[in-house]
């Protein structure tokens, strides 16, 4: 394992009070965390780089949403996203196909006008955005290409994405990638009241595994 890879260990105790039961759940997660990742849309017209601040909270950053807007836009039953500061995210190269849709006036939904991939959603009045974990390149998400001959390009781990174009360095991606860092389910789960009985109401990632904060309605 590369010594540059930091591991994150999370121990969470949940006290779930429900009408007919009370359970105490403890979960411990250990996973490697990236300095940088890249991703893009399905057609390749949009490419992006995320440079995680040194103090980025990979636990709080992992979010899901089951609102109807996310379902309609992605075609999936839930959205898996990761929250970062807007300064940590930037498009690379041309992004002529970038469009934004506002299903809610104060929330931008950035997508590719050629292939339709949703890249992120972002409240206009906040300093963060939530990029879609499904658009992260397979190298980082699942470790595709590991271990031979694949490396990522990092520009350092500055918190604000400063423009010091420091010399690229290579960072080996661990076996299995960074999927758990990006989608561990320890953050917020929006619109759990839209759970589909028997389908999405028992999936650990979506909050029923005792991780994260379940949000029953709007955020
Ligand atoms: Zn595209
Ligand atoms: Zn949503």
Automatic annotation (TrEMBL):
UniProt region (Disordered), positions on chain: 152-175
UniProt-listed Gene3D superfamilies: glutathione-dependent formaldehyde- activating enzyme (gfa)
Start and end residues of each CENP-V/GFA domain: 37-163
Keywords associated with the record: Lyase, Metal-binding, Zinc
PROSITE patterns: CENP_V_GFA
SUPFAM superfamilies (UniProt xref): Mss4-like (SSF51316)
Keyword Ion transport assigned: no
Example GO molecular function: carbon-sulfur lyase activity
Homology family: Belongs to the Gfa family.
PANTHER family: CENP-V_GFA DOMAIN-CONTAINING PROTEIN-RELATED (PTHR33337:SF40), GFA DOMAIN-CONTAINING PROTEIN (PTHR33337)
Protein name: Mss4-like protein
Record lineage: Eukaryota, Fungi, Dikarya, Ascomycota, Pezizomycotina
